[in-house]
Structure formats: C-alpha cells, structure tokens
Amino acid sequence: MRRGLVIVALAMVCGTVLGLAQPPQPRPRNPIARLLTPHGHAAPPTAVPEPAESTSDAIFDATAMGSPAVLDKGWRVGITSNQDAAQPDFDDSTWKVRDAKDAIADVPDEDRPAAPPPPPGSVDPKQEPPDPDYNDRRGPGHKRPWVWFRMHIKLAPNHGPLALLVELPVSHSTNVNIGGAESLTPDIYANGKLIQAQGAHNDHPERYQSISRMYVLDVPSSQTNLVLVVRSIYVPVGWKTYTAFFANRTFHLGALADLNEQLELWTNHSLFERLPRLVISILLVVLGLFLLALYFTQKGHTEYLWLGLHELAQAPIAFFELAGSSARLDLIRYGSYTLQMVLISAYLYFEFLISLLDLRRRWENKRKRVIIPIMRYTAPVLAVVGPSLLVVDRSTVFVIIFVVSVIASIAWIIGWLLFSFITLIAATARRNFEAGLLLLPLVLEFVGVLEPVFSSNMADWTGRNYQSPLTMMAGPIPIHFATVADFIGLLSIVVIIFFRFLRIQRDRERASSELAAARNVQELLIPQEKLDTPGFEIDSVYNPAAEVGGDFYHVEPTAEGGLLVVIGDVAGKGLKAAMNVSMVMGALRRSAERSPSKILESLNRVLAGSDGITTCQAVWFAANGEVVMANAGHLPPYLNTQEVNLPGGLPLGVLPEVSYPEVRLYLHPGDRLLLMSDGVVEARQSSGELFGFDRVHNLSNQSAFYIADAAKSFGQEDDITVLAVRRMAAAVAA
User: Fold this and answer.
1) Dihedral angle over CA of 586, 588, 592, 598, nearest 10
2) So where does this one cross the membrane (predicted)?
3) Looking at the whole model, is its pTM more than 0.85?
4) N or C: which terminus of the chain carries fewer CB neighbours within 10 A?
C-alpha cells in the first residue's frame, strides 16, 4: 500500500511531467561553483578525470564481433548547435573520444567563445585554466544546444539487416522517472538518416516513459562503413547532465532477430520487476471487497467502509504503473490518474482513522475537535489536482488552477501526515493494539517510498550506478523495500480485522446472553395471565421492542374489592433496565401501601442514587368508583376520551425526598381509564414523523390491542404498553 509520502512524491512527478512536455532550456552550471570561482568562471570538473585520447582513428571494428555487439568504446562527443553534426562527412576529428562509462568527462562547447587569457602569473601553468561560465554564450544559434555522440563503425561485408537496441535498466522502466538523464529520448542517425524508434507510440516517444527501444538501421549489406550519431539535449549540470548519458543506456548493434530476442528478454524482466506490485494490487482488491462485505454485515462499524474504499482506491495504481512504465500511457495521464487515486486514498484513510479511533467522541469537548471539520471541508481541493493536470496546457487559467490546487494539496497532505502520525502515536501510547499495528507499516512505507526516488537518481548525482541495499532478489523477481512495506501493511490490516472480529463476536455473544437474560427477567415481572379483578375489567397489551426496554406494570386486587395499578418506564435498555425493573417490582410487592403518593415516595427512595431515571404512575381504584392518582413524570391517562390533567412530578430517582400530589376523580359504571407508556406516542415512521398525542386522543376509545397495534405498525422504537381499566356495573361485578 502507498500511503503518506507517496503523495508528496507523486506531486513532484506532476511538476516533472510538465517539464517533459517541452524540451528544457539550457541550464547553468552549479551556482555554488560559480560563487566559489572568481570572474564568473566555473571550476573545472574533478569528479571524473579526462581519459587519454585514442591514438587510433577511433573506429569501432565490428567485423570480428558477434551479434549483438556492445558499443562501449570510441564515442566522439561534442557540443554544438550545428545540425551538420548528424551527417557522416562531418569533421569530428577535434572532438574528444569517450568510452561509454557511468560518467564521462566534460567536453568543450564549440559555440562558446574562448575564455580570455588570465593575467600573467595569476594561474599555475600546471593547472588547467577554468572553463568560462555556461551562461556567457555569445555564439550564433546557441538558443538550443545539443550534445552529439558519434561513432565510426566498420561493418563486415554482407552483414545483412542491422538494428540498434538502446537498452535501459529494468528498474528505470518500472517507475515514472522524475528527472534522470534517461528520461530524455535521444535522436538516432545512421549515415545521416534519422531513424525512427520501434515499439509503442514511437512517433512521440518523449511524451511517454523511457523504455528500451529498437531502431532498424537502413544500411545496405554491401556498405561496410557506418557513422552512428546520437543526439540529445545538452544539459551541463543537474539530474539530466549529459556526462551521465551512458549511465543508464547500453547500445547494442547486431542482427534484427538477435536484438528482438534481447528486447523480449528485457520485457520479461520488466514484468518480473512489476509482478510484486501487481500481486499486491490484486490482494488490495480482495481485501477491499471483503471489508465492504464486512461493513454491510456490521453497519455500525464504519471503519470497515472507509478502509475498504481506501484499499480499492489504491488497487488501480499498480496497473497505471504497468501502462505508464511500458509506454502505453503518456506521462501526463499517468501522473494525473496515479496522483488522483493516491489523493483520494489519503482522504479515505483519514476518515478510517477517525472511525477506528472514535475521534469524534474522544475529541468532543476538546479544542482539537476543529481539526476534523477543517480537514474535511478543505479536502475537495484534492479532487482538482488530477483533472487540472490533464488540461494544464490549454490555457493560463488552467495553469493557475493547477498550481493553486497543488499548493493547497501539499498543505493538506502535510496536515494529513501530522494528523496520521500524531494520532496513531498517541493511540499507541494509550496501549491501543490496533493503532500500533497501523503505525508500523506507515513508518516502513515512509522509507519504502523514498527508496526508489533516491535510488533512481543516485546515478545522476554520483556518476555511477546505484543498487539499493534494501532490495532483495527472489530468483528473477526483485523485492523492493516498498513492496515489503506494502505486504506488512496488508498483513497488519488482516490481523486487525481478525482480532476485531473476535472482539465483536464476543461482544455480540455477551449482548445476546444479556438480552436473553433481560427478556427472562421481564417475562417474570410482566403479568402473563389475566388476573381476577372483581368489579373491574383489565385490558392490557405489552409489545416489547427489538431491544429489551424498561416498561413495567403492576396490577394487584385488594381484599376490600379495590384495585392497585402501577405503570412506569425505566430509562435504558437491556439487562441493566431489566434489573432496575426487577428492583421496582420487588419494592412494590413488599410494600403494603395503598396510597399512590406514598407508593411513589417509597419507590423514589429505593431508586435514589441509581443510574438513570424512572417515570411512574400509581392509581388506586376503590370499589365504590373513587380513583386516586399520583404521577412521577409519566404520560397522563385518558378518562374515556378525555385526557386527565395531572401534575407532572419529578421522575423517580432524581432527588431523594420528593412529595407527589394526588388527584381524585370518580368512575361511573362503564367508564374506562386508559394508561400507556411513552412507546406509543414516540412511535416513529422512517420519515421521522411521530405517532403523537393527537393520534392517541383519536384512538383513546379503542381497545388496548388496537391502540398498541396501530403504534407498532406506525413504527415501533420502544416498548409499547397499553393498559385499560373499566369499572363494571354492580350486577356484572356480582
């Protein structure tokens, strides 16, 4: 997986890609060297000593060599804007002869005026005089200088069809190059004729990643003299310096069939180089789909959703690399697609960390909570970088948009890096096992992303090939450190998912057992059979919600022909609510009180100091029709179809000493008192509409079953309890 600094690295790619769209202008020598040298002259090169010139005519004899032959000796190197240097009869006898080494010595620039002679006695006669400043050019036509590599080759008679293979190291073709010398596609001339490269997009190879290419030379079999000319843009210093031209190129001359076999072998090696990344991408797709499936089975865990999308966003990057590094996708599109997917995956990882570490809840009352909305509201700028890169060459407006979006994205990425590392380190310090597992691959990927950037440019800086010590070989397949970091990241996620699944499964089993225990307690406390209540008809319905709630009611006939009814709702869900209900019911059954206010005061003392509150309503029905009621924050009852005006009263358990006033009324034979829990009025449709008091009032003359069923069908969210007490006529009661 590519997180963290890969985003910054690819942002650098975007700028380089723009530079590759047009040939670069001449650049000055090292400005530090200019400051250290008087009179604006650069110090002479000392990194590579100038080899002795060949005493021969510098003709490469290929008559006795097999096919293919490596052209590594006798290159004549010159710097000039004279286009006649491509012709076979051009006089290059004064040019320096260089062998194809990792770094060659500087050669004179023919278009520059000679340096003025130093004052007598000011320079050691044994020391070579310094070169003039590269910015001090006055020669005509020097607006676009070229460096030329010419070789005179003697061919065997009747040599047959010839071809030239310019081979690049495999490692340089599998990553987009951010400025190495091999990123400049040279022009090839054979006996003065420009030769077009073979392969994909050979008409504009400069727009694509450099790859090994074949050049079929139009040299008749009877012709034994070949002047091979290679022309490249002259860059005196920096990543594209001409002195490192041969560091990452090997020129092979031979029969077309032989070179085709060698090119096919190079292609196979390139595929082996890419194979680990492709395997990682396939694993990312599998892991991403698994995480999405896990989210849909556990929708409360949004970290699975964000992480799954994050993995899926990273998966196409390796395939973009495959298309880009094989010159199937131009550099602009390659950079745009890759950069955009990386930026998207960075934002998805940000959301994943928020969900995984539950930062919204943890930071709710802290100042740093503003970090989350700031990062979210500024994230849309990330979606502008990729599309603006595709159209940046169409208008100055698009250039401005691209530059602004890149600057804003870099600022966002810096904040993202700080956020990711700091939150993971802080969570690890709190002994968060999952955060520690995520922090390790993030640190490794930090190193893994720097490795190819560092290695691919070391040859240009040091003048010699560089093999990273962090790269291992598994047969023909190189395993880079970034691949190891990716695999460790995948393994860490698998381990996190495994342990989270075990923990969630244990939590579910515990919750299931608690739910079963709560239902058992509730079934024991709620009357299951119809009680014998002389003089009164009881109609009751209890519909439990999906979660066990805290509804309860108690019906107790008395010896003098009266009836005590207590109904209430304990705050909370599950086993805790059921245990609070059992405490209330136990207190009711032990109490000999018949006064509603005294009953509520007694229950309040029992529940004082407990966690949560309880609404309750106590009603005493006398045999003669008198009714005494007291209320502790419960819904008012309905007498026939009229709501009874009751004082609200504090719920039970809020304060230790509370008095509850009583209200008295009279029930005539046939009158009905309707009691219910708040689960009726709080029933809610999917649109958010509540069942409400108006519907309760309209249905107050219906049976308890009808009212409860109407609320349940409307959208039950809590326990629904409906209890109706009707006073019977004296003859019926007898």
Assistant:
1) 140
2) 278-297, 337-359, 371-392, 398-425, 437-459, 479-502
3) no
4) C
Closest CA to 670 of 619, 733, 727, 622: 727
Tens digits of residue pLDDT in 248-264: 788 999 888 889 898 88
Backbone angles phi, psi at 384, to 5 degrees: -95, -25
The residue behind tokens 């029933």 is 683
Q: The tokens 């698998």 sit on which residue?
A: 494
**Neighbouring C-alpha atoms within 13 Å toward the C-beta of 404:** 9
- Residues 207 and 184: their CA atoms lie apart, in Å, by 10
Interior angle at CA 168, CA 163 and CA 190, nearest 5 = 30
Query: pLDDT grade, residue 710 (50/70/90)?
Result: very high
Q: In the 8-state DSSP scheme, what is residue 379?
A: G
Q: Are 421 and 428 in contact (CB under 8 A)?
A: no
Q: pLDDT for 576-595, tens place per residue?
A: 777 778 788 888 888 778 88
Q: Return the DSSP state at 376.
A: H
At how many degrees (to 10) do helices 433-462 and 396-429 cross? 130
Show Cβ contacts of residue 399 under 8 Å, excluding neighbours closer than 6 positions: 392
Question: What digits encode the pLDDT tens for the residues 10-49?
Answer: 444 444 433 433 333 333 333 323 332 333 333 333 333 3
Q: Which residue has the higher pLDDT, 60 or 20?
A: 60
Contact status, residue 536 vs residue 558, Cβ threshold 8 Å: no
Q: List the domains of the chain with CATH numbers.
A: 43-114+125-264 (2.60.120.260), 531-733 (3.60.40.10)
Lowest mean pLDDT among 237-246, 448-457, 502-511: 448-457
State the pLDDT at residue 351: 93
Q: Which residues contact 514 (CB under 8 A, 6 or more apart)?
A: 574, 575
Q: For residue 726, give every residue at least 6 positions away whose Cβ sits within 8 Å of its Cβ, in sequence order, or none.
A: 536, 537, 539, 670, 671, 672, 673
Query: What residues contact 307, with CB distance under 8 A and at least 6 apart?
Result: 291, 348, 349, 352, 356, 493
- Phi/psi for 169 (5° steps) reads -60, 145
pLDDT of residue 548: 67
- Provide the token pair at 212: 């090994």
